[in-house]
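Please describe our next protein:
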Amino acid sequence: MAALSLQVDKNNGFFNRRVDPLMKFLQNKIKHVIYIVKENRTYDQVLGDLPIGNGDPALTLFPQAISPNHHKLAQEFVTFDNFYDCGESSGVGWSWSTYGRTTDYTEKSQSVLYGNAGFEGLTYDYEGTNRNISLALPQTSPNASSVNTRLTGLLDPSGSSSILTGDKDVNAPEGDGNLEPNAVGGYLWDAALRAGKSVRNYGFFIDNSFVYTRTDKGDPTQGDPRNPSYIPISPNPFAAKIPQAPITKTVLLDKTDIYFRSFDMKNADIYLYNEWARDVEENGLPNLMLVRFAHDHFGSFDENPVAGLNTPELQMADNDYAVGLLVEKISHLPQWKETAIFIIEDDSQNGPDHVDSHRSLAYIISPYTKRHALVSTNYNTVSMLRTIEDLLGIDRLGITDANAEPMSDAFTIQPDFSPYTAVIPGNLCAQPVDPSLVPACQDPKAPKTAAVPILRDRNWWAQKTRKFNFRVEDKLEPEEFNEILWAGIKGDRIPYPQNRSRLDLRKNRAQLLKQWQFSANKLSAGK
C-alpha cells in the first residue's frame, strides 16, 4: 500500500512541489520575464520541416522562408518537439495560459459559444469582458472616450444603458485582482504583483469591442462616421495620440500600454512591435512583461488589412518578424543577461499535426537556455507557467501549476550572452506588402529569405472565408477554416490530411445534431 500510494503521489506531480535546484539557481540570475502569447498553430504547421525533431514536413504550411525566425530561434536555442497546448480554443486557451486552469463557467459556455458566428447572443467572456462590456472601466466618465468609459456609457452617457449588475468577472478564477498578501489564485500578474514584482502589459485582456465595431469594410486606419466608438488603426498611435487599448482588468489599468492594440487581424504585428519598442525605451523592463502578437491567427482578408498583409502567408511572416525583432531588441540591451523570453500559442486550433492536434510551438530564449538543443520532454502550457513562477520566485496559482514539472531540461548554468539577429521574411519585401512596413528590406546587408510564390491572392481568401467572423476570437468553425488554409496554401491537388478520429468526430457530430433536432421537435410539439 505504501509503495502504491507513493506511485500515485508521483503520478499526480506532488514531488514537483519540491524546489528544483536548477530553477533555484536561475532565480538568482533571471530578473525579467517576457511572456509572449500568440495564436493557433500546431508544431507541424510551422516547424514540421526542421531538420531535427519529430516533425512531418508534408504537413508544414509556413516553412522556413515564411517563418525564418520561428525556425532560427528553435535551432539556435531549444527545439521543443513534445510540447502541448492545454486549450483547444481561445476561450479555454487564454484561461490555461494566464492562470493554469479553467473555470466552471468556461467549460459550460465555451462549447456552446464556439463557432457560433451568427448568434450574437453568445459573447466572448474569457478575457475580462462580460456581455461585451469591460468590467474595469466606469459606466460613465466626464471626459468619455473609448479607453476610459464602458461601451454602453460611451454611447449613452446617462448610464441608463448598463446591462450588468456589478463588476465581477463571471469567468475569472478565485483571487482575480486580489493583491492582499495572504491571497491566492488569480492570474499570473496577480501573483507577480502580490510578490512585489513590476508588471507591464501589451495587449493582454483588452476590450476588443472598440476594435471590431466598424460598421463597414472601409479603411481600418480611418474613423467610422457611423460608429464613433471604433478605434482606427495607426502605425504610430503614440505620436498620433490615438489610444488603442481599453483594458479589462482593474489591476492592469495603470500597467498597460494603451497605445498597443490587441487582437485585430486587420492590424500588423510589426506595428505592435514598433509601439512596444517605443514604450520599452521610455519605461524600461519590468519583472514581468505580457506581450500579445496575434497575427498567426489569420483572417479579415476582405476588410482591407493594413500594409497589404492580406493572405495567411503574409500575416504569418508579419508575426514571425515581429517576434524576431523583439528577441533581437532584448538581446542587445544590457538587461539581456538577466532576461528570459517565453513564447507560446494560446491554443493550436485543431490544426494538422502527425502526433496530436494539441502539439504546438513553445520557445524559451535566454542566455541560460541551452543552445542548438532538442528537448523532447513532455511539457505543456502549465509547465511554462510553472517555469515562469519559479524564475520570478512567485506563488503558485493553483493545484495544476503547483504539481507541474518546470521546464528545467531547457536550461544550463553556463550562460551564452550572444545576441540574436532577426531575419526578414522575403515576402515582406515584395508586392503586395507596403514598402514602408519593413524599412530594413532596403538594406542589402540585412539577413532575409527569398520571397516565395504565394498560390492564392487576397480575393481568393476573401471569397473563401466570407462567412467567417474574424473580428473576435472563437467565432468560426476551426475544422472548416483549417481545410481552407490547407487548400489555399497547398492547392487542391493535395488532399487535406484526414484521420479516423476526425472522420468519426464528423459522423458523431452529424448524428448528435439529428438527435438534438428530434428532441427539439418533440419539445415544440409539447410531447
